[in-house]
Amino acid sequence: MATRTPSGNSKAPARSSSGTGSRSKSTKTAKSAPASPVHDFPLPVRMIRSAWMGIARVVAGAFRKIGRDVHPPYEVRRDGTGLFLVILAMVIASVEWWGLRGVGWYGTFVHSVAGGTFGFMAAFMPPILLVGAVRLFRWPEEHRANNRVGIGLALLTVAGAGIAHVVGGIPALNAPFDELWAAGGVLGALATVPLAGLIKAPGTMVAMIALALLSLMILTATPLKQVPARIREGYDKLMGQAPDEAPAPTRRGVKLDAEEHDQSYLYDELPAPKKPRKKTRLFGKDRDADALDSTEDLAGYTGDVAYDKAVITDDHGLPLAQDPSVDLYDESVEPEYPEPSIRPGVRRPTKAERDMAAIMEQVGLGQEPEADTQAMSAIDLTNFDADDVATTAVPLVPSRPPAAPLPPIPARTEQLQLSGDVTYTLPSSDFLPAGPPSKERSEANDAVVAALTDTLTQFKVDAKVTGFSRGPTVTRYEIELAPGTKVERVTALSKNISYAVASSDVRILSPIPGKSAIGIEIPNADKEIVVLGDVLRSHNARKTDHPMVMGVGKDVEGGFVVANLAKMPHLLVAGATGAGKSSFVNSMITSILMRATPDEVRMVMVDPKRVELTAYEGVPHLITPIITNPKKAAEALQWVVKEMDTRYDDLANFGFKHVDDFNKAVKNGKVVVPEGSKRILKPYPYLLVIVDELADLMMVAPRDVEDSIVRITQLARAAGIHLVLATQRPSVDVVTGLIKANVPSRMAFATSSVTDSRVVLDQPGAEKLLGQGDALFLPMGTSKPMRVQGAWVTESEIHSVVEHVKGQLKAEYRSDVAAEAPKKQIDDDIGDDLELLLQATELVVTTQFGSTSMLQRKLRVGFAKAGRLMDLLESRGVVGPSEGSKARDVLVKPDDLPAVLAAMRGDDSPVDDVVPTAQEAALAENANANHYGTDLVAEDLDGYVQAVDYHDGADDDGSEDAWNLTGR
Ligand SMILES: Nc1ncnc2c1ncn2[C@@H]1O[C@H](COP(=O)(O)OP(=O)(O)OP(=O)(O)O)[C@@H](O)[C@H]1O
Fold first, then answer.
1. What angle do CA 575, 579, 585 make, to 5 degrees?
2. Is the pLDDT of residue 301 over 60?
3. Residue pLDDT, tens place only, 42-65
4. What CATH architecture does domain 443-523 belong to?
5. Cα distance between the two ends of the chain
6. Region annotation Disordered: residue ranges (predicted)?
7. Could you point out which of 36, 63, 617, 683 has its C-alpha 20 to 30 Å from the C-alpha of 575?
8. Which residues are within 8 A (CB) of 11 and not within 5 positions of it... i.e. 6 or more apart?
């Protein structure tokens, strides 16, 4: 007969139990096998043992099903011992309770042993033994608690026997059986007889009662000081009254040890608000309460939040985890032993909440209710019942309490007074209508969950889809692994998952930041549009009136994302054509128009494509007509540099380092002008410079543009000047290393290649975006980009906002920004070759043939000179890069030749037809009106050391000053 070797058996893999239920029967048997080498016993013993364990498993199974079903790990089960206690309890009960006492050998024997040992306390032994059995069946893994309960029960038995013995007259150990039985038996005699010799019967009784109380305290893990509270609690429960305070935390009906008490929430059967708990610790006060009373929260708001962070928050009511300044989910307080059944997801709103949301909508609170329902969008699939969705709430565990409905908040409380006593009204939020309510789940999501689950099963990966959070464009499905399963097993399935869900745009996040779960982002078959109105009406956009806050869109979890452009402090927006850059820029400008007066934010718009930003022509926030000529744009950037220097000087003059501090001090009347100065101090507006196509500028004057951008981006933050650079060509010649290093915030829409993604984000990812506003947002200081669906604003909405704004105030353009360019010097690298270069340009552009040997022949120059001229032509964007022996591409059309020649000469463009006549008229009108008068800032600065002028000769006329920006 073949006998298995001990080693062979003991080396059976000891898999940890995950309770997934997918385990095979043989595995189960292996797991439940004891560690001892049972096969050493003879067969009959092994058979008996098997039978015993079989019965034990059946009985234990029944006990585990009582009340809440439990599944202790196989390795730690002690069903055999539990069965023994149950049988012992039944045997004693059969004799002491059911009248078999002294009947036959069985009755006599059991009664002699039980009665002789415990006296009449034997009648109380069955329940005591059953308590022990229940603990072993249901919670065998809780060794410490089991030991405590065992000790408590043992002491209780001794105390009971002792009390019985005192009641029975304390018979001696050698007293007849009947006397011992009528008292506390042998145990009672051992416990009391020695004591009675010392402290007599009453003293012994008191000692035994004290011992009984002590055993009860051990059993219930009640420290002495909590006894009164426990008694009151017990009384309240018995009387059916609600306790005054929250009951002490329990774990499966058993009070916790004192030292376990601190972490009791980890075990609560009730929904455990885990993250709010963490926040409570993090912020030192109860944020749950705050969340419930958002009115108070907002009342106390000072607006400074917007100054502190580039991205304010999403609309989960929580600061975004990506913000480095907010360590929201402090992992140090992450539960050590999270209850597997408690999902970190958020529950679905109840029907009542949905009704409330609908009512809120009707009474004009816009999308705020949606913001709250959005926060509940992570869905726990474990309890999901598809039929339930429409009518009743799926019984899920909330990760935080639902926020109370928000009151409507007026965007601005003060009456906006512009310079010249003009009263200004910001556009009403009605100009931006609400979008359709967003979905929390759809059939498409369920289909994907099924597909993912199938894929995991097919490839035998021990993992399951535990929930998902639906965003407007993509849904992030969360996958949790069984212990011992490698993350790579799921990430390696990326192609199979793409195949299963029929989408090539699957993105795997491993792990989801802040969670022990793998995230799989899959595009929604039923995408939703995020309208700008909803974003600007969201809680976080409304809780600050900072004028530079813009609506960005929605994140993957459906939370609204808003950002403060002043904190970016400069932003690069890039993406392939049609990816959604211009829509983003439109949302940005419209956000500013909706929230800021021209006194607070002034803008310079550069739109070389001439079509994207024309809708904003004439808004009073502009300081110059929209610049469409790239050359003028390059000059406008130089003006911005000078403006920055002037602001710096002025701030330094008054002893301020940041324009915000200066503005605050001016508003509070704390700044005094120098004696004799006629200046009336007013806050500086923020200056937002928007370039819709950087590539066009870089083609015309790469060095100048790069210089200006670098200088602005390095210093302008403190002067309140911020750059937004958009490009559809995020290649290294457009977004140079220098520009990249100085523009810290990035918004990447879908790029055409992974190289482009690397240029924008320094990492891949953008090439997998879906276009149409799907973007990766990387605010300054973060390393992981956040996926957002950009906000969308329609042309008619823009039109109505612009009309309102223009109706409030006429644009007052500065004539010196682009129209009066400072005199241009001939670039150093041209040196004495200007004439030759002009001839070469003319030759190459008119013939559209970029050949070095042609230059040699026609200009009668040597090879070296011709090569140098060709290099100069390349650096100025006239010809493309060298392609070996082939002629170079000519990038300038003959029509543009005069402008290119003028740029080389350092003159103004002779063909200045790019500024529309209306704009020129506006310029002329403004120039005639001479709003600015004497340069009072320059007057004040006279005699002070000025900021280093990097553009020699540029301020010869001394006419640029920040003060004039708002007509002061
Ligand atoms: N946030 C958005 N929500 C929904 N659809 C959008 C969004 N952004 C862009 N789209 C869709 O994508 C189209 C192209 O967008 P947009 O014009 O902004 O792209 P672009 O990147 O600026 O392209 P180009 O560089 O050619 O101007 C839009 O007409 C619109 O249909």
1. 80
2. no
3. 788 888 888 888 888 888 888 887
4. 2-Layer Sandwich (3.30)
5. 107
6. 1-36
7. 617
8. none
CATH architecture label of 831-906: Orthogonal Bundle (1.10)
| Beta-sheet pairing, 518-523 with 601-606 | unpaired
Q: Was 460 annotated as part of a binding site?
A: no
Q: Which ipTM score applies to this complex?
A: 0.97
Task: Report residues whose beta carbon is within 6 angstroms of any ligand 1 atom.
Answer: 529, 575, 577-583, 728, 749, 772-773, 790, 792
Q: φ, ψ for residue 617 (rounded to 5)?
A: -55, 130
Measured between alpha carbons, how far is 209 from 160 in angstroms, rounded to an integer? 8
Is 492 known to sit in a ligand binding site?
no
Q: Whose CA is nearest to atom 16 of ligand 1?
A: 580
Length reported for the chain: 968
Tell me which residue has its CA closest to atom 14 in ligand 1. Answer: 578
Dihedral sign computed on CA atoms, order 810, 812, 817, 823: positive
Q: Is residue 960 within 8 Å of 640, Cβ to Cβ? A: no
Please tell me the predicted confidence (pLDDT) of residue 287. Answer: 33
- Coil, strand, or helix at residue 358? helix
Q: Is 378 one of the annotated binding-site residues?
A: no
* Nearest-angstrom CA–CA distance, 404 and 349: 13
* CA–CA gap between residue 294 and residue 289 (Å, rounded): 9
Pocket test for ligand 1, best of 524, 583, 693 (most atoms within 8 A of CB): 583
Q: Which amino acid is at 400?
A: R
- Residue in 777, 612, 614 with CA at minimum distance from that of residue 694: 612
Between the CA of 798 and the centroid of ligand 1 the distance, in Å, is 15
Site to substitute for ligand 1 among 614, 772, 794, 797, most atoms within 8 A of C-beta? 772
8 Å CB contact between 268 and 274: no
State the Cα–Cα distance between residues 891 and 607, nearest whole angstrom: 20
Q: In terms of Cα–Cα distance, which of 181, 67, 85, 82 is closest to 129?
A: 85
Query: Is pLDDT above 80 for 238?
Result: no
Closest Cα to atom 31 of ligand 1: 772
Relative to the CA of 586, which ligand 1 atom is closest? 18
pLDDT for res 813: 82
Q: Is 577 annotated as a binding residue?
A: yes
Q: Which residues contact 916 (CB under 8 A, 6 or more apart)?
A: 617, 625
pLDDT at 343 exceeding the cut of 60 = no
Pairing state between β 474-481 and 416-418: unpaired
C-alpha distances in angstroms, 259 versus 102, 249, 407, 736, 962?
Answer: 48, 12, 43, 59, 65
User: Per the annotation, does 576 bind a ligand?
Assistant: yes
| pLDDT tens, position by position, 739-771 | 888 899 999 999 999 999 999 998 888 988 888
Task: Answer yes or no: are the C-beta atoms of 476 and 556 closer than 8 Å.
Answer: yes
Beta strands in 201-312 (DSSP E): 250-251, 254-255
Site of tokens 């009960």: 93
The tens digit of pLDDT for each residue in 138-184 reads 888 777 788 888 898 899 999 999 999 998 888 888 888 888 888 98
Task: Give the domain ranges of the chain.
Answer: 6-14+31-232, 274-403, 443-523, 532-819+918-966, 831-906
Max avg pLDDT among 347-361, 425-439, 545-559, 789-803: 789-803
Q: Say how far apart CA 608 and CA 722 lie, in whole Å.
A: 19
CA separation for the pair 544, 803 (Å, rounded): 25
By the 10 Å C-beta count (0-12 exposed, 13-18 middle, 19+ buried), 956 is classed as: exposed
Structure-block tokens of residue 326:
């907010």
- CATH domain 532-819+918-966 topology: Rossmann fold (3.40.50)
Higher pLDDT, 415 or 687: 687
